[in-house]
């Protein structure tokens, strides 16, 4: 196993996660894994931004439905840091279709749909870089030390 790089990835709790009240469940899984939130915001996504985010799927049969779903209610956008966080988050998220995603994954445990599948995660370092710059200004990403080790009271 080669050493992994410390990375930042872009995750989005999709409209179904917000509508179903599963944001806390999803964020809790990320935190318990040891990943760190570097940025987080609630966004009702404008159509143009949705189309930019999913540009790789433009022209596919599911694209219009995907954009309609993604803009239908607010999402929670997160920048998430940790060793190998891009691949680690994809593993935590599971396969695209909730019916096929493995138990123990977010999609495998929490949904039955292929389209309304709760969460997006960047699929490569190149995607993460592009998506982070699409959703966050540099000033919105915060460096800090996790844990309460500084509290000596
Ligand atoms: P995401 O980008 O949202 O993290 O999902 P993913 O990598 O697992 O899947 P991707 O192939 O990138 O597809 C993006 C999203 O489009 C919807 N989809 N619908 N009806 C269909 O065949 C179909 N295929 C994809 C899903 O919401 C998927 O997450
Ligand atoms: Mg994808």
TrEMBL record:
<keyword id="KW-0067">ATP-binding</keyword>
<feature type="active site" description="Pros-phosphohistidine intermediate">
    <location>
        <position position="120"/>
    </location>
</feature>
<comment type="similarity">
    <text>Belongs to the NDK family.</text>
</comment>
<keyword id="KW-0479">Metal-binding</keyword>
<dbReference type="GO" id="GO:0006241">
    <property type="term" value="P:CTP biosynthetic process"/>
</dbReference>
<keyword id="KW-0418">Kinase</keyword>
<feature type="binding site">
    <location>
        <position position="62"/>
    </location>
    <ligand>
        <name>ATP</name>
    </ligand>
</feature>
<comment type="subunit">
    <text>Homotetramer.</text>
</comment>
<dbReference type="InterPro" id="IPR034907">
    <property type="entry name" value="NDK-like_dom"/>
</dbReference>
<comment type="function">
    <text>Major role in the synthesis of nucleoside triphosphates other than ATP. The ATP gamma phosphate is transferred to the NDP beta phosphate via a ping-pong mechanism, using a phosphorylated active-site intermediate.</text>
</comment>
<protein>
    <recommendedName>
        <fullName>Nucleoside diphosphate kinase</fullName>
        <ecNumber>2.7.4.6</ecNumber>
    </recommendedName>
</protein>
<dbReference type="GO" id="GO:0005737">
    <property type="term" value="C:cytoplasm"/>
</dbReference>
<feature type="binding site">
    <location>
        <position position="117"/>
    </location>
    <ligand>
        <name>ATP</name>
    </ligand>
</feature>
<dbReference type="GO" id="GO:0006183">
    <property type="term" value="P:GTP biosynthetic process"/>
</dbReference>
<feature type="binding site">
    <location>
        <position position="107"/>
    </location>
    <ligand>
        <name>ATP</name>
    </ligand>
</feature>
<keyword id="KW-0460">Magnesium</keyword>
<dbReference type="GO" id="GO:0006228">
    <property type="term" value="P:UTP biosynthetic process"/>
</dbReference>
<keyword id="KW-0597">Phosphoprotein</keyword>
<dbReference type="InterPro" id="IPR023005">
    <property type="entry name" value="Nucleoside_diP_kinase_AS"/>
</dbReference>
<dbReference type="GO" id="GO:0005524">
    <property type="term" value="F:ATP binding"/>
</dbReference>
<feature type="binding site">
    <location>
        <position position="90"/>
    </location>
    <ligand>
        <name>ATP</name>
    </ligand>
</feature>
<feature type="binding site">
    <location>
        <position position="14"/>
    </location>
    <ligand>
        <name>ATP</name>
    </ligand>
</feature>
<dbReference type="GO" id="GO:0004550">
    <property type="term" value="F:nucleoside diphosphate kinase activity"/>
</dbReference>
<feature type="domain" description="Nucleoside diphosphate kinase-like">
    <location>
        <begin position="6"/>
        <end position="143"/>
    </location>
</feature>
<feature type="binding site">
    <location>
        <position position="96"/>
    </location>
    <ligand>
        <name>ATP</name>
    </ligand>
</feature>
<keyword id="KW-0547">Nucleotide-binding</keyword>
<keyword id="KW-0808">Transferase</keyword>
<dbReference type="InterPro" id="IPR001564">
    <property type="entry name" value="Nucleoside_diP_kinase"/>
</dbReference>
<dbReference type="InterPro" id="IPR036850">
    <property type="entry name" value="NDK-like_dom_sf"/>
</dbReference>
<dbReference type="GO" id="GO:0046872">
    <property type="term" value="F:metal ion binding"/>
</dbReference>
<keyword id="KW-0546">Nucleotide metabolism</keyword>
<keyword id="KW-0963">Cytoplasm</keyword>
<dbReference type="Pfam" id="PF00334">
    <property type="entry name" value="NDK"/>
</dbReference>
């Amino acid at each position: 196993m080669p050493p992994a790089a410390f990375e930042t990835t872009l995750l989005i709790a999709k409209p179904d996660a917000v509508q179903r009240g599963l944001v806390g469940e999803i964020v809790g899984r990320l935190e318990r894994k040891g990943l760190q939130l570097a940025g987080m915001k609630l966004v009702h996504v404008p159509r143009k931004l949705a189309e930019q985010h999913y540009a790789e799927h433009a022209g596919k049969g599911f694209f219009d439905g995907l954009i309609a779903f993604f803009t239908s209610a607010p999402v929670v956008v997160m920048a998430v840091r940790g060793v190998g966080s891009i691949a680690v988050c994809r593993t935590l998220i599971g396969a695209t279709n909730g019916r096929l995603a493995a138990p123990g994954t977010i999609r495998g445990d929490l949904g039955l749909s292929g389209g309304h599948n709760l969460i997006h995660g960047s699929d490569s370092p190149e995607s993460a870089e592009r998506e982070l710059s699409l959703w966050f200004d540099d000033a919105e990403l915060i460096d800090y030390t996790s844990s309460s080790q500084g509290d000596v009271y």
